């Protein structure tokens, strides 16, 4: 199975890059202070806004998604600011850690890994803040470490008219599950290139509400690289404050064209089918899922390894036998779960193939399952959905 | 002349990317926590060290070169630290500004734009610091805004055994002009991908001496994305703290192979010929150069536009007529100079062609020069050098 270059890459990012996008990136360099780039940055910024469902300003950084998380902290949270960080896993913790590192007084509300945040808990905590000392609420859209999606709309409603900025890490969720930046009144939304945008890692996005823009003007945190005031000033003239990652811009233009053609809501519906077929297939194999159906992510599915069989052994075998790459568990979930990414440039058939490989590997490892049951179940879901 | 995709791109970055490097970047994604990436990061880190002429640690960030400048500040300079910033242009000013933004007490020594820093001035200033309060000396190797190269070796010697960290911005100079990180005892050296490394923008490099590593352990500046302690911890296991810019890593591997084959000292010699032929050619056209021969950069050449003829008019015409892209002047040098980049993947013949185009454009714009004189002079230089 390993004779070809492409693997079955089913990670929650980096996701497989379509070959036309790869090709588009092989274009020669241009002057990043010239007319072609001016056109390019205007076009892709508008395209990204459509995915975000926003008319807010969008800034693109040459960085990993974590860079946009740092930008969301240093532009909008000043040292000493009280921040409510809602965490349901590794990336919620990371956001809280970055805020702490940059001087915020962080109060973290943790929910058990594998569960979603309860909006009622946040509503109560916000109601207690009569002096309105909380300056920002930081929350994860899709928690990549567990495969759980938070109900951002309800959490936003729970914060209500409290003046805290509402900051969302949507790195692995945007473009895979519905996120209404404007309708839901989200102040700052972070994302990255290597997930639903289907391009290689190296671009990070930030959508910024007018209210957040005002906060950034007076934010006292130190910043140069991540300074959105500078980025927006340059954006007006079709430039960036320092050299942009040109090849990734070429790729982004191509990928956005594909996304535009398919339509963002169709893309989201497609990802929901991924979720349903993978979950049904894995369940039919008799395996347990980490997340409940009600909060299950459309970007990835976390599966608990069968009793006595390490998750990483399954992963290794999938790689060796079938060149299938899936993710392991992180931190306390290491070797406990494996994570099947189904995000971006993935086909239904790819997922059927991976379910089939998983079945074969499990049988080989001595798990008592019936070959084909998981695959058949997933096929049935596809037939039901009429895809 | 504009029928083909590639321009004559003679900028001091982004520089033209070789087609084999572009092709190498069109590879599918891989798991950035898997065995292939572990091998890849080890290989390119070693390759970058050879260009740096160092055995020090090297860290690669998914960022523009400016990101590595910020990393050089937040890891090694604490708020309140006294910093001596040596500036000979826009990028020297930028480094000073970043240090200031992050709380350093910056004393800037400015030299006139177009000149190099005088090591004696720095020696005197350092000698006055009897209490050894200066924690870092920050200096530019090649100043991209003027086309002047600083004598880093002499400036380092001028600092002598003063304990200040010696931090160098070598973004546009490394790989084009000699820089001996270890022999010259440079503590932190910053560079970027889109210059002599011949790959697109989006990777930034930092070489760090053992002494600087110790300073970083106790540095009180806030940092997460740029934290080299975290980067080095992950590097040990063949990973990065957050998703690396994979495609650019593929490109870097390919480009480093090319550089290894040619040999770093041959590359440097080639760039010196670029400098000599362009300067001789431009002088033979009767134009004036901004920088003196003794301090002239091998990465780019700054040319003063003829009296009464704006530099940007010449640039526009070069673009329209011949698809030749050269850089303009920055800030107070805007419209006063134009800058011919000759860095990285450039051929001698490319530069002859551009000199020819420049002559034709100047004649068309009414400048009284003799067609062919500049080109011929440059040819003579090539013949003399035996290339």
From TrEMBL, chains A, B:
Keyword terms, alphabetized: Aminotransferase, Pyridoxal phosphate, Transferase
UniProt lineage: Bacteria, Bacillati, Bacillota, Clostridia, Eubacteriales
Functional note: Soluble hydrogenase catalyzes both production and consumption of hydrogen from suitable artificial electron donors or acceptors. This subunit catalyzes the tritium-exchange activity.
UniProt cross-references to Pfam families, sorted A to Z: Aminotran_5
The protein's assembly and partners: Heterodimer of a large and a small subunit.
Species this chain originates from: Syntrophothermus lipocalidus (strain DSM 12680 / TGB-C1)
Residues in Aminotransferase class V domain copies: 8-329
Recorded GO MF terms: alanine-glyoxylate transaminase activity; L-serine-pyruvate transaminase activity
InterPro entries per record: Aminotrans_V_dom (IPR000192), Aminotrans_V_PyrdxlP_BS (IPR020578), PyrdxlP-dep_Trfase (IPR015424), PyrdxlP-dep_Trfase_major (IPR015421), PyrdxlP-dep_Trfase_small (IPR015422), SP_NH2Trfase/AEP_transaminase (IPR024169)
Cofactor names: pyridoxal 5'-phosphate
Location of N6-(pyridoxal phosphate)lysine modifications: 195
Top-level taxon of origin: Bacteria
This protein's record includes keyword Membrane: no
The protein, known as: Tritium exchange subunit
Entry-linked PROSITE patterns: AA_TRANSFER_CLASS_5
Similarity comment text for this entry: Belongs to the class-V pyridoxal-phosphate-dependent aminotransferase family.
GO biological process, one term: glycine biosynthetic process, by transamination of glyoxylate
Binding-site residues, substrate: 339
Keyword Transferase: yes
């Amino acid at each position: 199975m390993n004779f070809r270059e492409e693997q079955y890459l089913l990670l929650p990012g980096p996701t497989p890059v379509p070959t036309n996008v790869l090709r588009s990136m092989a274009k020669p360099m241009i002057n990043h202070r010239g007319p072609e780039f001016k056109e390019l940055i205007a076009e892709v910024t508008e395209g990204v806004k459509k995915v975000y469902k926003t008319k807010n300003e969008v800034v693109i950084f040459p960085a990993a998604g974590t860079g946009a998380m740092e930008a969301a902290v240093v532009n909008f949270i000043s040292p000493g600011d009280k921040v409510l960080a809602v965490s349901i896993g590794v990336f919620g913790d990371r956001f809280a850690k970055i805020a702490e590192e940059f001087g915020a007084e962080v109060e973290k509300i943790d929910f058990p890994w594998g569960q979603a945040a309860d909006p009622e808990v946040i509503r109560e905590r916000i109601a207690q803040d009569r002096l309105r000392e909380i300056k920002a609420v930081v929350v994860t859209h899709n928690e990549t470490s567990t495969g759980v999606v938070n109900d951002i709309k309800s959490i936003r409603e729970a914060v209500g008219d409290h003046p805290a900025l509402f900051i969302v890490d949507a790195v692995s969720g945007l473009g895979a599950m519905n996120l209404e930046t404007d309708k839901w009144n989200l102040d700052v939304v972070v994302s990255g290139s290597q997930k639903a945008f289907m391009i290689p890692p190296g671009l990070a996005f930030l959508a910024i509400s007018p209210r957040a823009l005002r906060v950034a003007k007076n934010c006292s945190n130190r910043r140069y690289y991540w300074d959105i005031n500078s980025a927006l000033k340059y954006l007006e003239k079709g430039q960036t404050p320092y050299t942009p990652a040109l090849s990734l811009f070429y790729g982004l233009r191509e990928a956005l064209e594909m996304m535009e053609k398919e339509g963002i809501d169709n893309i989201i519906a497609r990802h929901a089918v991924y979720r349903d077929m993978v979950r049904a297939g894995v369940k039919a194999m008799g395996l347990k899922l980490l997340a409940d159906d009600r909060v299950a992510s459309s970007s990835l599915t976390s599966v608990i390894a069968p009793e006595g069989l390490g998750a990483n052994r399954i992963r290794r075998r999938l790689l060796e036998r079938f060149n299938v790459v899936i993710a392991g568990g992180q931190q306390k979930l290491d070797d406990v779960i494996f994570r099947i990414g189904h995000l971006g440039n993935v086909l239904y058939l790819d997922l059927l193939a991976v379910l089939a490989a998983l079945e074969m590997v499990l049988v080989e490892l001595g798990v008592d399952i019936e070959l084909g049951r998981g695959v058949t179940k997933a096929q049935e879901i596809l037939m039901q959905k009429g895809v």
